[in-house]
Each structure stands twice: as C-alpha cells, then as structure tokens.
Amino acid sequence: MANDRRDATRRDWPTMLGEFRILRQIATGPYSTALLVRMIGDPERRGEMTLKVLHPVSGPPWKAAMRMDTSVFETAAEHPHKGLAQTFEKGQILDHVYVLQEYVDGIDLRTLLTLFPQPLGEFPLRARVGIAVQLAATLEHMHSVPFGDDRKGRLFHGDLHPGNVMIDRQGTVKLMDVGFAPMALAAIQPAVTGSAVGSPGYLAPEQIANRRATTSTDVFAYGSLVAELFAGEPLFRGDTTVAILDRTQEAQITDTLDRIGGEYAGAARIVHKAVTPERK
What we know:
The protein contains ten helices and eleven strands. The chain is of the alpha+beta class. The strands form three sheets. Strands 1-2-3-4-6-5 form a six-stranded antiparallel sheet.
C-alpha cells in the first residue's frame, strides 16, 4: 500500500503464519507489510511469493475487507499482462487479512529514485524513458479491460506510486498490488472517515475529495510519477501530508515541470496533460 519503505521499523514476525513460512520482511507502510514467504508443500510450485498483510485493527473493518468483492483480482487474473504482478488469493489467518501475490526479484522505483535523487544523474535517461513507457503500456492494458457488474467500467489500480512499481533483474517493470487499495480502504474506513487512503502526491484531487479511484485517478498518479522520474523530486511537495494534499487539490505544481522542460519537453507535456482536470 502507500509509502512502503525498506528502512521502516520492523516487527518480529513468527517463522510461520498459517501455511506460509516467513523468510523475511520486504517492506512496510502505514497500512500493510510485505513479507517474502514460501507455502508449505507449495502444491502449485510457485516458489517464493509476496504476502501482503494488512495491519491488524479491531472490530467490523476486518469483516468488510473479507467480504470485499474479489472481482478486481479475478478480472486481472483473466487478463494477464507482463507488466502486472500476478495475484493468487486473498485470505485471513487469525487477525491478519492478506493478499498473496507474485514475488518480483528486483528493486522498487521508490528505492531507485532514492539512490539516484538528482535529475538523471547516474540513472540513465534511456532507463527512465523505458520505465515510463512500460508502465504506460501496463496502465493502457488495465484501462482497456471491462470491469464492474455491467462491464461498462474499466479496471484500475487505485494506488499507483513509486513504491508499487518494481523493476526486475531483466529490466521488466511490474505494477504491484492490483486490487489491494480497495481492500485496505474497506478494512480501515471507519477509522479514517473524511481522509483519503493512498499516497499523498499521487492522489488526484477528486480522489482526495470523494475517495473514489478510477482510471482517471490512475492517469493523474502516472503523471506525478513521471515528473518525479525525470526530475528526481516529487511534483507536489510539502512539509506535511496535509500540505501535500492541499497543494494537490489546488494544483500547485512546483518548479518540477521547469526542471524537466527544454530537452525533455515531451515528458513535461505528458505530465501537464496527465494532472489537468481534463485528463482521461
């Protein structure tokens, strides 16, 4: 989920969680923790997998998360794409609601941008363009998939940010956590009434206002991510989460667009178009 980070305070996980052997903690964030696991017996021969576990809360939210429609996972599985990490199942072990998904051996984009924060720097332009192009192709695929009871809607991610974008050892870009955002929202909703669930700086204004994700909010997040990819800094900045959300809602774009203009004017145009209210 939002703001996964590898240097976060780690809790002591048991060596076993249900039928899963925990190998190590991959990352953690405010709503969930990602664990590297193997299934005992591994009947499907999947090998190492990622177990995304929602942080425990008490009361009705857990029931909401477990009742949540699994059609997002099922629809994504019916329409595979090389840029989508596969989700295997959703379940519950004691007070832990989880999603089991493909493990991608590589590095997430957030870590990559942290290692190379300066614009372009040692992170080659060609590599940055490749990431942007691959991710755009994955989103285009998702947004072409019919979704919903009437099949008139389109499949969307809902929480696109650098921490959910993995680059494997072959250079393939994988989008993680498809379908996870609405499940987390269902689980924690009573505790965050009036708040947007997701990653500040990548949430579209209408997503902050009405807490609904769509293909359009994915486009906004993509534009914000591309800006950071080329400039080495977020498009919407602030000292606090509230300040970032306010800047986003008021479309107060920093000087980031100027930093990727000129030679990279094409990228700047993409970003500007993606974050405007007229985006599609």
